[in-house]
Design a protein that fits this description.
The protein is mostly helical and 209 residues long. The chain is 77% helix and 0% strand.
Length: 209
Amino acid sequence: MGSITFSMWQALVVFIVINSITPGPNNLMLLQGGLRKGYRGCIMHIIGIEVGTVSMIVCSYAGMGALFHTLPAAFLLMKGLGCAYLLWLTWHIWQTGLGIKEDESVCASENKWLPPLSLWQAAVFQWLNPKVLLQTVLLPGYVLIPSATPWLDNWPVIAVYVPLNFLCVSVWAAGGQSLRRLLNRPRALVGVHYAVVLGLLYCAVALWL
């Protein structure tokens, strides 16, 4: 790998794991999706996360970070769109909990706009997810294989990123399924549901703090 050292790869792995496993829009949506549909129902959502993120990594190594540095308004626009979507999603998820008494409609709702998302919905959402946007823009600062076509020749970064991220976000989807099995009382499920709502709302507001 030329000048790429083992310590740089170590730093990359730590960076990916920390950013992938900590709470954020993707993980909170997968927790909600796991509650509604179980882990299997979240598979396309998870794959969509990987598809969208890989496209962003390629663009990052092609100079997306330099573009945002030159045109800060572009990053501001992406952040604004992401915030708007999170607020919209928070509202729709919150509505599924209204009026729930002794049923589990918070889990059984068939609303196609609620998590888990389809593959392409999740892929597009990554471009509106400021946490992923910032993460992918910073990746070249951890590992950069010098070449005439860095967007193509830095494929080892993708080979490391995808399985690590897949495992980390899967923990949240599986956690949602486990909560659904463990919390037999509808009120407890609704409590988790509203915790997800508050978490997403915080993610939207925290973008501007």
